[in-house]
Design goal:
Helix Hairpins; 11 helices; elongated
């Protein structure tokens, strides 16, 4: 039953300027006649079909507002769509458990560990059946454009009464809105869960960072205090060992200087002795030549003595050089020992500082490990929540796209799609043909080619304005045979509004047939036959 507030609108059958009433009437009549079975069936056992009536009716479509869109419902209920949605793991249970385990941190970490895969369970897909809902995307796109041509009905018209009642559609939408609200609430709880997890984890990480900074500050203060104690000790130790090394170096340098002087003196003595030997050898040689044997013997004795002296000097030089090397090595070793003792002393005094620095690094590493562990345990929970939220957003998108955009629609309305119902009878058999909103075509080259080869071109006379809408209208042909209530309504409404009994329609057909003939759709004979048939039908 319709309420008085429901507005009703009618769409035009054809929006083309060429499709004037006379052309539309003639085209519909021509197609109706072309589809009539004249043969009488196989072996002539069936009677030829007779044209019972042609009626222009209105196919009801409900338009109901929902959020900022309008849902389209098939008024005859021939369409049904199952709205799919998913139900994931309960966010409320998770949130309650989270609130109970938020404090202290170890308890929270245990909670994260226990709920790492909580949101990884496969969601359950469920369906909510919407009787009569037209969800086909192509239909909605075509209808969004087509309905702009609708005009409000102010006069009586031959309209099919919706089999899908307004109250049923309203109840379905109310239930759907409740479901959408429930899913939206669940999504908000999931968002709250994710925000809570991020907040709590963030707070604990801040707490860890604060503890780490406090520990670093504490140890830094200890290091500073220890440095104030150790630095004077190291300065004193540095001064002490610098003095020791200086004294040691001075002592060795003095000894080395003395040895160096001895070496220089010995080198000079060697040079002097070698010169004497040369002089003595020359004197001996000269006396020998002169035959002075006594003098020659004396010079040779001097040579021998000098050579013995030279040998002693060389031994002394070697001893001095060995002593220099020994003293130099001893100096290096003793300085190295002092440096080693010095470094050991510094290290010993700095050991408390090194221990504090090591403790500082160890604590910083422990805090980093704790922070990383917290983030690692949070990640699978947060990722699972994010996936659930994204899934919910997808469901909301599907809900928002059930209808067409129409934020101005405030209440339900009925939009009627015009169609021509043609009924054929053959004995007790009855058959329906439904012609959806169409435009009359022009004769093109392909149509002329078909005519030249003897093919029937009437099939190209009308082109549906929308294939999805035409599919919906043609369903009446089969649904009428299955639904006695619809068939009874279709029959009675068409009988009352039979256009074959309408003088204006018949006159339009007559003029329109002439138009179709002039434009190449009909031959002279076809036009005559159609006019004769029309005369017998009226």
């Amino acid at each position: 039953m319709l309420t008085s507030t429901v507005k009703r609108y009618m769409l035009p059958f054809s929006g083309h300027r060429r499709s004037e009433p006379v052309v539309e009437a003639a085209a519909v009549f021509t197609v109706a006649e072309a589809q009539r079975n004249r043969s009488g069936g196989l072996f002539g056992r069936q009677s030829p079909e007779a044209l019972a009536f042609i009626a222009k009716l209105g196919y009801p479509l409900w338009l109901f507002p929902m959020n900022n869109s309008a849902l389209i419902f098939d008024g005859l209920g021939s369409a049904t769509h199952n709205v799919s949605y998913v139900e994931s793991t309960s966010a409320k249970t998770f949130l309650d458990c989270l609130e109970a385990n938020e404090l202290p941190r170890e308890k929270y970490l245990t909670f994260l560990s226990d709920h790492g895969s909580y949101f990884d369970h496969p969601p359950q897909t469920k369906q909510y059946p919407m009787n009569g809902l037209i969800w086909d995307t192509d239909f909605k796109e075509d209808f969004s454009v087509y309905r702009k041509e609708a005009t409000e009905l102010t006069e009586p018209a031959a309209l099919l009464i919706p089999l899908l009642e307004e109250s049923v559609v309203a109840s379905q939408i109310a239930d759907l809105e409740k479901l959408q609200t429930k899913l939206h609430t669940e999504k908000e709880k999931l968002v709250t869960c994710l925000r809570s997890i991020k907040r709590i984890t963030g707070q604990y990480i801040t707490e860890i960072d604060f503890d780490a900074a406090a520990a670093t500050e504490e140890i830094t203060a200890k290091i500073k205090a220890q440095e104030e104690l150790v630095n004077p000790q190291i300065a004193k130790l540095n001064k002490e060992y610098q003095h020791k090394i200086k004294d040691l170096t001075t002592s060795f340098d003095s000894e080395l200087e003395s040895l160096q002087k001895q070496k220089t003196k010995t080198d000079r003595s060697i040079d002097t002795t070698e010169n004497k030997i040369k002089e003595y050898e020359h004197g001996a040689k000269l006396q020998g030549k002169q035959g002075h044997k006594i003098y020659e013997t004396r010079w040779k004795a001097k040579v021998k003595t000098a050579r013995k002296e030279l040998s002693g000097l060389k031994k002394e030089l070697k001893r001095i050089e060995c002593r220099i090397k020994k003293v130099d090595k001893q100096r290096s070793n003793e300085i190295a020992n002092l440096n080693f003792e010095w470094d050991a002393g510094i290290k010993l005094r700095r050991q408390p500082l090194l221990d504090l620095e090591a403790q500082q690094k160890q604590k910083a590493a422990a805090f980093r490990t704790e922070s990383n562990r917290l983030q690692a345990m949070e990640k699978p929970v947060a990722d699972g929540l994010a996936r659930c939220i994204e899934l919910r957003q997808t469901v909301n998108y599907d809900f928002d796209n059930l209808g067409i955009g129409n934020p101005q629609l405030k209440g339900p309305s009925l939009i009627y799609v015009p169609f021509y119902a043609v009924c054929y009878e053959a004995g007790l058999a009855r058959r329906y043909l439904c012609i959806a909103p169409s435009a009359v075509n022009s004769v093109d080259f392909s149509t002329k080619l078909k005519q030249a080869f003897g093919f029937n071109k009437i099939g190209n006379l009308l082109t549906p304005r929308s294939k999805p809408i035409a599919t919906l209208i043609t369903k009446v042909e089969t649904v009428a045979n299955q639904n006695s209530s619809l068939e009874s309504q279709l029959w009675s409404l068409s009988e009352k509004n039979d256009l074959l009994k309408n003088r204006t329609f018949c006159t339009d057909v007559e003029h329109g047939l002439v138009f179709l003939k002039h434009h190449g759709w009909l031959s002279e004979r076809e036009t005559t036959d159609l006019l004769d048939t029309l005369g017998h039908s009226g």
